Structure formats: structure tokens, C-alpha cells
Amino acid sequence: MNVLICSVGRRVQLIDYFKEELNKVGGKVIAVDCDPTAPALYHADLFEIVPRIDNPEYISYIKNLCRKYNINALLTLIDPELTLLASFKEEFEKEGFLVIVSEKKVVDLCYDKYLTFKFLKENNIPTVPTYIDIDMVIQDLNEGTIKFPLIIKPRNGSGSVGLHKVANLNDLQIFWQENHDYIIQPFIESNEFCVESYIDLLTKETTNLFCKRKINMRAGETDKSIVIKDSVLNDITYEVIHALKPIGPVDIDYFKTKDGYIISEINPRFGGGYPYAYEMGQNFIKSIINNLKGIPNTPYEKYLGEYEEGKTMVRYDHFIVL
Amino acid sequence: MNVLICSVGRRVQLIDYFKEELNKVGGKVIAVDCDPTAPALYHADLFEIVPRIDNPEYISYIKNLCRKYNINALLTLIDPELTLLASFKEEFEKEGFLVIVSEKKVVDLCYDKYLTFKFLKENNIPTVPTYIDIDMVIQDLNEGTIKFPLIIKPRNGSGSVGLHKVANLNDLQIFWQENHDYIIQPFIESNEFCVESYIDLLTKETTNLFCKRKINMRAGETDKSIVIKDSVLNDITYEVIHALKPIGPVDIDYFKTKDGYIISEINPRFGGGYPYAYEMGQNFIKSIINNLKGIPNTPYEKYLGEYEEGKTMVRYDHFIVL
């Protein structure tokens, strides 16, 4: 059983886990990236350098690799490629290459912060107020529904890339004029939480929920987290998954405000911090392997996640010469 | 021979190297940090959790550890502690604990971006124009010496923490009013370079110079670098070291503008990217061990650094559960 992983980048530990789990069942992980200096390439069983995802030949290139390596399933680790793979899902599957990605409408919605907001609001799931119309912002500021500081960030994008914090109307107007395809949100200073879940590819049932509270944030990336269990967080996560219907690994970020948890982002892919979940026994890769063998995974029993609360998890930098 | 390293934080690889080199000569590395979740602690031979560096008992606590572990030398990995250790250097050395830190006036100067600028200017070494007076900025803007965008960042601090980019006078004035102890500099969009050097503790001669060009910058941290050799960069580095007279490991950051290299920062300590230098054979830890044995290291022969040009080096995240 061979799995091809696209845009592996610096996700070294995840590729190590795939290699370990696939090797156990006589399979291999094949890693691809357009950048030969992507360190995760060198941790796979085999790797290939491919064109950039915006190259018109990209999909046929990947399809050829699936044939060459007798691939059973493929997935990507980056947001912009989710839509691409979702668009060609059927085409791949005609040749027997399962694409582990949610439906196109799901990944499109998650990639667009304004669509995410609209969807959650329609489903009465608490989220961060999000605007694409500055007049609406001004109206809500005047009505006192929101207040400064506000943040402006790209409508598509992850982490804090391109994020500006603005303290007054003048700054807001300047940044708004200069940046296109941006959204405006109130700045929320609160604890951040993250839930990693796996939705079975066969039964579409949630089989894992793993919750953590983020500590020190540095430029939008988490340095430290604490494992928690929280039935309220589980309930909201269930609600979102039920409404959105994603499949495979999904990572959902939350703020906790005085009114409770609100969703900040939904990533229908392996989250950057997935290694924490794996190290705590949340083996989504084994779940994928089961699914590929036609075996459904046991649905998660609400509030009874099989992991230990209170553990601290940290991230550090590793440097290598290629 | 035992070495105590303060504020080890997430510098896991550096502690691994210290352990490896010290173990070869029958020595040990003892790591300390105020945060029990600092992952580097757990890579040392022994570790201790200590008070914060601003605790009045900190120095006596560290001195007791030096006695307890029969320490030969100690050093710190973070900027704010350099001044502290430099202040108590003599006191430690009276008891036979060598503090590997430059003189207090050197570390104070490097920690303060405005003092660094003044020092370099006085020594005719090219650097980034730096202001602590907004009227001077306005004057130079009017005279066309500098232009927008400008950046505002803390006078003390590292990386891009607290950095704002401003596009016009209005924004500049707003940020300037809101932030105290900040400096203003022109925003420089250019390639960034870094030189790691070692200045022998006995001879005060430079024994290593290792140059790299940074690629992708993400939130002020380098993801990727390429090893280079450049006699011009070496010359400026020599000049700085000659004028400043630091000792031990020193990391100097540069921009390359159309007028040539200009210095952006001098860090009189192990740089965050030192593992690249080590992996390329620049073993500053062995140099420290030699010095502690009373053996001087061979001075660097200008332009003949013993490393291979053109190698790519990358950084990735590693996650652990404590």
C-alpha cells in the first residue's frame, strides 16, 4: 500500500510517521514538492521534485507518479492545493487513486475566511464577525457591535501572514484601500484552542477528537500547547463536522471568549501541529490505512477521548544541511 | 570539564552539540531555564529549573549551581541575560567560573539598536540609518535622505518582534505616540546575510568566519540559507570585530543594498542559526573547550574559511510531548 503526499515542505515529522506506519504494512510513502530543498522530501521512502501547483502540467505529472509508484491514495498538506485535488478527485479515482480530500465545496469554503464566516453563521455556530464591506464595519462600529482594535488580513491564507492590526478608522481606511481581497475582523485577545479530528473515509463518522490549548503564540505559530478535554469544545466540533461534512483529517481553531468558544479557522487537512496528536496516540495514519483496506474505524465515543489530559507539548527548530 | 548554559529555551541542537563535545573530553553540559517546558533542558547531561533572570536571587542561584556542578565556564543564549552575566563576570571568575561573555559595554551596545547605529557610524562601518527622534526623521524625509516605508521597532529586542511597517507620516506619528523606547529605520528590501564568528577567549583573535545568505524569511526567522564566501563581507566583519572587541561566539546580520553590505544587527552570543555553521564544520564548542584548557585556537586565515560554498541549509519544526 503506497501513499503519495503532495507539497510536503517542512512537515518532516508527519512524513516520518507515514513512513513508519506504511512500512509496517509493507507500504511506502512517496513525497513530492516543487522545491528540492523541502526537507520532508528526504524523510520519505521515495521522493520526486514536481512542477509548481500552478503549472498547467501539474495534475498530469502527479497522475503519472501515481501510475509509476502504484499509488493507492494521495493527499496534500497545503491549503491552496486542496481545491486543486478536490477538482480532479474523480479523474484520479477513475484510475484507482483515492484522493483523501473533502468535497470541493467544503475545501473552497474553508479556504475563504468570509465564506467560512457565512456558513458558520447560517448554521448558528459561534465564530468571529467577519466583514468584506468597510461600510458595514463602520456601521457596526457606530452601533457599538464591534470596536477597535480591528484586524485586516487576506481573505485566503493561513496563520498571521499579511495580518495588520489597526487602532482607528484612519488606519483602517488606509490599509483597506491598499489591500484587496482582505477581510476585517475584531481583534480577539483570548486563549486559543485547537481540535484535530479524523472523519472516517468510509463511514463519514468522526473517529478522533483531540483538543489542546495553545500557549505562547509567536507570529501565528504555536510553540507550546496543553492537552485538554472539554465536552463543550467537543460538542461544537461535532456540530461543525455534522454541518460541513468534511472527510479525513481536519484541524479546527478556536478562541475562547467570555461568551464561550468561537471558531477562528477550519483546515480540512493535517494541521501543522498534528504531531502532538500523534504523539498522544491519535494515529490518523493508521485510520487512513484501515480505510484503504476497506476497514472502517470505530466512531469516537463522545467525551471519552483516549488520551491523557494536562500534558505539555512544545515545538523547537531543527536545522539541517542538505 | 563542565559547562553551564543559561536560558537554553528551545535551542535543542546547540545543547546536543555541547553534550557531544563535552562528553568527548569527559565533561558535562548543565542546562538551566526558568521554564520547565524549555525542551533543550532535556537534552543536556543535567538540568535545573531556576528563577527568572529578573529575580533578585537569580545570580546567587546560578553561582550555587556552579559550585554544585563544579562548573568551569558558563554562558547564556539570550540577549537580556548577556548584560546581567557581564555585570557579574568578575564575581563569578573570583570563584573560578569563567563567564563566556563580552565586556558589559560591548553587550549593552549590541542590545541597544540606537547605540549600535551610533557606534558603527562613528567607526565608518555601513549600517541602517536609525532614529530615536521623530523630528530628525521628518527632516530627513523632507530632505529626501530617507523615504517611506519606514519601520518602527523596539530599541531593544530581536528578530521582528514588535515591528511595524508604516507607509506615511500619519501612521508614523500614530505608532510613534503609542510606543515608547522604539527606533525608526527605513524599510530595506534586500538580501539578508549572516556571519557567525568565533573570537578566541585567550588571543582575542578571530578564529572562524562562516557566511550565509538567507532565503525565505518568515516572521524574522530564517527558513533557508545558502553557504557563501565573500571577501567583502569578511572584511567588514573583521572591521567590526576589531572596533568592537567582543569575545566568544558572535553573530552579525547584514543587508546587501545597491551600495554594498550594511550591518543590521550584532549579537554577541551563539546565533539562532549556529547549527548550520556547526554542521559545516565550524566547531565553536571545540574552540571553547580548547580555550578552557588554556589552548589558543588558530587564527582564521582571511578569505580561506574551511567550508564548502553553495550548500543549502534548511530549518523545520520538531514537536515533542514532555
Considering DSSP H and I runs of 4 or more, what fraction of the residues of chain A is helical?
Answer: 25-40%
CATH class of the largest domain in chain A: Alpha Beta
Q: Largest inter-chain interface?
A: A-B, 39 and 39 residues
Order of helices and strands of chain A: EHEEHEHHEHHHEEHEEEEEEHEEHHE
Mean pLDDT of chain A: 92
| Gyration radius of chain A, rounded | 20 Å
Could you say how many structural domains of chain A there are in total? 3
Q: Choose one word for the global shape of chain A.
A: globular
Largest sheet of chain A: 6 strands, antiparallel
Uncertain segments of chain A: none
The CATH H-level superfamily of the largest domain in chain A is ATP-grasp fold, B domain
Q: Assign the CATH architecture of the largest domain in chain A.
A: 2-Layer Sandwich
CATH topology of the largest domain in chain A: D-amino Acid Aminotransferase, Chain A, domain 1
Provide the spatial order of strands within the biggest beta sheet of chain A. Answer: 15-14-9-10-13-16
Q: What share of residues are in beta strands of chain A?
A: 25-35%
Which quaternary structure do these chains form? homodimer
User: By helix and strand content of chain A, what is the structural category?
Assistant: alpha/beta
